[in-house]
Amino acid sequence: MSKFRSTLYLLLALSFLPAALIAQGHHEHDSGQYVILSAQYGDERRHVDVTERLKQLARADRPIQVSNSTFGTDPDRGVLKALRIYARGPNGREQMFEYTEGTYVDGAQFRSWGRGEWGTGGWSGNWQGEGERDHGRQDAREPEDRGQYVILSAQYGDERRHVDVTSRLRELARADRLIKVSNATFGVDPDRGVLKVLHIFVRNLNGREQMFEYREGSLVDGSQFRGWGRGDWGNGGWSGNWRGDQRR
Fold this sequence. Notes:
Elements: H1 2-29, E1 35-42, E2 47-49, H2 51-58, E3 64-65, H3 68-71, E4 82-88, E5 94-100, E6 104-105, E7 150-157, E8 162-164, H4 166-173, E9 179-180, H5 183-186, E10 197-203, E11 209-215, E12 219-220
């Protein structure tokens, strides 16, 4: 009888083991260092709060694709949108994470992601995040912001038709990553059927204007531009010459 009871207790213990391991796995996955304050989907002009929807999706504990169908809304039709997750970092300061339409969110870096124990408020309400007003994020990537060229303007298209995309490029640069030159990236096609380029006009160390050209499909690496990740540029000063000083 004693042997029977021992066997029964062992079987019961083993039956609870998978659940315990799953719980442990969730606990480890939920040990990220950033606590989410709010999640907003859209663009600077129009965006909506999707914190509760993101919380529901996070409980499935798998990557989430950023799209209108995922969040059940299209805040600004015809414009490339983004999901911005505002979180509090280990230093207690607010930080913003941006995921453009079509990309995936992996919640491993967020605390209690799968349990949904976040999003209870505390967001500053600033679409650009506090990184725009202070240097909390600047210190971590200071080397990338020491480029020798200061951006004056960014224009996308061709010589016949081009549009100013300085503000859009500034938003993308704050994510401090490589940027692909395309209609989808800038949310516009200035001249249909024609190969387009991105022209970034800068002021060099000699104070002269210079132009960098990136063809459609290529990648922009902002490491050579001063203040790239902070967005401390694009405040005017461009001559208006599509070819830049290279022409003169």
